Amino acid sequence: MVAPNPWKWPVTVLRALTTGGRAINTDTQQDPGPADLSGLAALRSVLRLRGFRRLWLVLAAASFGDWIGLLATALFASAQFENTAAQGAAFGGTIAVRLLPALLLGPIAGVFADRFDRRYTMVTVDLLRFVIYGSIPLAPVFGATPTQTAAWATFATLIGETITLIWIPAKEAAVPNLIPKSQIEVSNQLTLITTYGITPILAALSLAALSAGLQQAGVTLPDWAQPVQIALYINAFSRLATAIVVFFGIREIGGKSPEREKAAEQSMTRQFLEGWKFIGTTPLVRGLVLGIFGAFAAGGVVIGEARTFAYSLGAGEAAFSLLFGFIFLGLALGIGLGPMIVKDLSRRRWFGMSIVLASGSVMFLGLAFHLSIALFGALMVGAGAGMAFLAGTTMLYGEIEDAIRGRVFAVVQIGVRTVLLLAITLAGILVGLGSSRRIEFGAFHIDISSTRVLLLVAGAIGIWVGIGSFRQMDDKKGVPVFADLLGSLRGRPLSPPEEFTRSGVFVVFEGGEGAGKSTQVTRLAEALKAEGRDVVVTREPGATDIGSRIRGLVLDRDKTEAPSARAEALLYAADRAHHVATVVRPALARGAVVISDRYVDSSLAYQGAGRTLPVQEVSWLSAWATGGLKPDLVVLLDVDPGVGLNRVDSRGEGADRLESESRAFHERVRYAFLDLAASDPKRYLVLDASRPLDEIAEAVRERLSGVLEPSA
Ligand SMILES: Nc1ncnc2c1ncn2[C@@H]1O[C@H](COP(=O)(O)OP(=O)(O)O)[C@@H](O)[C@H]1O
Ligand SMILES: Cc1cn([C@H]2C[C@H](O)[C@@H](COP(=O)(O)OP(=O)(O)O)O2)c(=O)[nH]c1=O
Questions:
Q1: pLDDT value for 57
Q2: What SS3 class is residue 385?
Q3: How many CB atoms lie within 10 A of CB 233?
């Protein structure tokens, strides 16, 4: 095998940059199949997609332009004034203006993205933005007064931002069509980190370097080419560049699927209303939208009061920057490492869990009394938010139909901006209102500041929203959440129970050798049959034709060599898989009472505790074999191994392979059974197997009457 060349993709990207992306079609577009690639391999494979590579460049350029533009416009507007109040107003004004247009145009932006050719939409918007942003630094050149210039900067930004709202859903809706589903997550990691991690930093650094460099060099620049203006030109030209790349380089974005053609025959109002209906009635989308809003509201509260909070820690301005830095670091870690950590965890579950993590950390912040603790909280807020963001966008990309995607994305972006703006403002006002209260209890006192109360409340609401959206879109209902999470972290996710309508009742007898299982199974079956019930008596191993051959392999001492511990575990699991599929499930589906002599717990006790294989692994194996089928009741007949083995001996049939194991082995098995019963008492009936037969039978009947419906 040829060793992969780690330099291939940076080289490809460089070549793409220098050739305008035309000479880079070295590989064909292909889906490498299921996402079994990890880390760098996955990254390389997504970068091999030409369409994505170009789109990534577009996004990087656009976002670099955006960030440098945002900073420069604000600086530019405030630089027009001498007095600080006017500077502040101008600075704040242009930033607020960036959020406002969402409310004006947002609602119909999605219809645009779904109705019209997305390539043309993106190119048109970009050309307009090139002109509009380019006009800002030129205003003074044409003789505008400072006030007029600041007003124009604000107005032009407003227009530019407004039409950006059309660009974003068009872009978002187009991306998934360029990337195979299995690679969407990796491509999102890359673009999110580029947009929110690399480019803002690069933009701020470039702007600073530009100003400092020019100052040092001592060159005097003409009015129209001051550093801030240069930054604004860069913003404008980044738009021209993206327009060109999208138009010539990513033709795949253009055109429309037949579904979209058809939908476009409706009126725009109709399409608009249909978008809302879809969002309101699809649980996955409802959960996603709800969760995203909740996360951003909690984030907004943190931003809105970060300054006051930093001061309350007694650490001032530096702490404020640090807190922010840690949130960003957390975001990057969550997005960059999240998928590697949670591995195959259901992305729907991951989304809800991440929101709970972020919100829980907001509450934790509310209780933090030292900067170091608060920094940890901030890191976790960021990590949770980053993971939720990644999981959320990946689902939006992967699970929503092309024809409606633009509208869903439009609602998300409008909602996010609005919620964020509201939360920041509201938090600012609330913090301003309440000051810290000291509550005295005799000699003690506690300081309760409104900042902390607000953090606790925001966190609690976030947790509530996270759980709500988890419930809305859970795709593994019935699989315990923490066990699932732990399993995934270990790399062995639990599979959701196979669905089937189960009207019967599944009873299992477990216990050591000679405990009396076979005897009790027969007794119970006879009693139930006498009531006129449909009863199926079965056992493991060996209830089926295949099963009886497996039984021979594992238990016959004379005929075969002993299987190794893992092979033995697999053989029992194979017997079980076949048994469940061909005997147990069909009987339960038709409503019978199924009574089995041994089931999953025997494997946990004998192969797990007895053979000392990791019990978790054995459990996972059985869960997989049975598709998650659990019994309704497990009767554990507990007996001292000595007593049980004596009973078996007296049958005089000779010991099988397991019966002839050591005393210590059987002791371990016994206690493993008792532990299992103790961990889930509702499902177990533990009986002392040295009691008389009839008493045991009676106790079983009694317990079962609570599980069985009265016989007809
Ligand atoms: N409660 C009991 N008290 C005394 N002997 C019992 C009791 N239950 C079963 N036995 C006897 O013990 C032996 C083993 O019983 P069996 O039902 O085959 O156990 P298992 O299926 O658990 O190996 C049989 O000879 C049976 O008659
Ligand atoms: C079902 C099962 C059985 N066993 C063992 C326990 C028993 O020693 C043996 C067969 O059990 P069983 O049929 O109960 O034998 P007997 O009727 O002689 O008591 O298989 C496992 O080790 N793992 C398993 O998963």
A1: 85
A2: helix
A3: 18
Average pLDDT, the chain: 83
Rounded Cα–Cα distance for residues 184 and 611 (Å): 43
Does ligand 2 have an atom closer than 6 angstroms to the CB of 626?
Answer: no
CB-CB contact of 200 with 331 (8 Å): no
Q: Is the CB–ligand 1 distance for residue 135 below 6 Å?
A: no
Closest C-alpha to ligand 2, atom 9:
658
Residue 648: exposed, middle, or buried by beta-carbon count in 10 A (0-12, 13-18, 19+)? middle
ipTM: 0.96
Q: Is 197 annotated as a binding residue?
A: no
Mean pLDDT of 55-67: 83
Q: Which domains does the chain have, with CATH numbers?
A: 1-23+41-255 (1.20.1250.20), 267-496 (1.20.1250.20), 505-705 (3.40.50.300)
Residue 258, classified by CB atoms within 10 Å of its CB into exposed (0-12), middle (13-18) or buried (19+), is exposed
pLDDT band at 611 (very low <50, low <70, confident <90, very high): very high
Picking from 381, 391, 386, 384, the residue whose alpha carbon sits closest to that of residue 324 is: 381
Mean local confidence (pLDDT), 61-87: 74
Q: With 90 as the cut, is the pLDDT of residue 126 above it?
A: yes
- What's the token pair of residue 212? 């400092």
Tell me whether the omega of the peptide bond preceding residue 541 falls within 30 degrees of 0, making it cis.
Answer: yes
**pTM (global) more than 0.95:** no
**How far, in Å, CA of 66 to CA of 44, rounded?**
27
At position 637, the amino acid (one-letter code) is: L
Which residue type is seen at 494?
L
* Residue located nearest, by CA, to atom 16 of ligand 1: 516
